[in-house]
Amino acid sequence: MPVARHVLTHAAGRPSRLALCGPQGELTYAGLAERIDGAARHLRGRGVGPGALVGIALADPVELLTAVLAADLAGATPLVGEHAWDRERWDQITGEDLAAVLDEPLPHPAGPAVPAEDRPGDLAWACFSSGSTGRPRAVVRTRASWTGSYPHLNALTGIGPDDVVLVPGPLVSSLYAFAALHALATGATAVVPGRWPGRSLAACLARSTVVHVVPHRLPDVLQQPGSLRVAVVGGAALGPGARARAAAAGVRVVSYYGATELSFVAVDTDGGGLRPFPGVEIEVRTGACEPLGEVWARSPWLAEGYLAGAAGPLRRDGEGWVSVGDLAEPYRAGQVLRLRGRGDGAIQTGGATVVPEDVEEVLRKVPGVDDIVVVGLPHPSLGSVVTAVVEAGQAATPPRALLEATARGGLDAAQRPRRWFVVPSLPRNPTGKPARALVAARLAGGDPEIRRLA
């Protein structure tokens, strides 16, 4: 069933229940249902219907979710992007397959109800893998691969229609988009500031019973928990002592491991360790004499792949198993899954996954950059911090200001290096490619040849 149809059902049963609270205003379920139905009618009038891919580029999160649900009700596939992107950027991401880019609030004319067929196998949702600007990577999935997991998440967290769910991040992120849509499908109230609320966090938490958050934001939440009872935490491993601090604040933590391409893989509801999310099978495939292996999953929650033939870490075998290259200790069914990072060099920073090659592709174009390697260095709260090591001659080293300006112009915030170094010559493997692991090891060891770029 389309998520929009759930919203319409909630509107019929509890019309005055608050559905959305955003920075510009609020909508009851009755008001949201009226807008969704009218906007879907408008889209159908524009020829946007089943099979169409629709870019959603609205700055206001309430208007954005209205457009997403209208596209869903019309049978189209909504893809949320940044509101500042131009059409060239959208075409780069989608392969020019867009039926429309919605960058203005949709009109919602009155008229007969828009019929919505239950087609769970439709490619009904598309979202971005975190940190995908250098080589844009949009992930497409069936409707059921998200909505089918909703009851399981409710059972694990206790989220229900009387909850107020804070979604304190940008809806272009699949983590936050899922959280907002799940809340609306459940009949709860979704508080959607559209970004981290900063000084208004306490006010948001005062009314919220549930929050979806990435690990490095959990300490901020626990300082002023308000009426919070559950924190759903995803995006990276929890730091030591996090659950104890949450318990002291009266907040239950449900943490999970997953990926945009995989959705939920494993969940920890009580601090006992990650175990398979309902419906998920897990394998850790190790080679001979290797201490770690790759995590492979098989479940109903997997995505179909990437739009426009984009390359990415998602791999499949012939038996329905998929992997994005995450590493773990050897695992057997019934055991706890012990993750150990990414095998492809991807950087987990503040809940986002940054692919180093995406960042390198943008920065390699800067005059004076002979080559560049991007790695993650450990950070106490972010997990890792994106770090660039530039190969450049002493006389032609590009100024840091130019590198940072290029990063701002071509990369999303999570992708931009926070630390910059320069080296006369990067170490390379036998094929001539920069040896990323060796660069990271030399940085960690304080190699004097690698100097900080002022």
Automatic annotation (TrEMBL):
InterPro entries: AMP-bd_C (IPR025110), AMP-bd_C_sf (IPR045851), AMP-dep_synth/lig_dom (IPR000873), ANL_N_sf (IPR042099), ATP-dep_AMP-bd_enzyme (IPR050237)
Pfam families referenced in this protein's UniProt entry, alphabetically: AMP-binding, AMP-binding_C
Superkingdom per UniProt: Bacteria
Enzyme Commission number(s): 6.2.1.3
Domain AMP-dependent synthetase/ligase: 10-93, 111-307
Keywords: Ligase
CDD domains in alphabetical order: AFD_class_I
SUPFAM superfamilies noted in UniProt: Acetyl-CoA synthetase-like
Name this polypeptide is given: Long-chain acyl-CoA synthetase
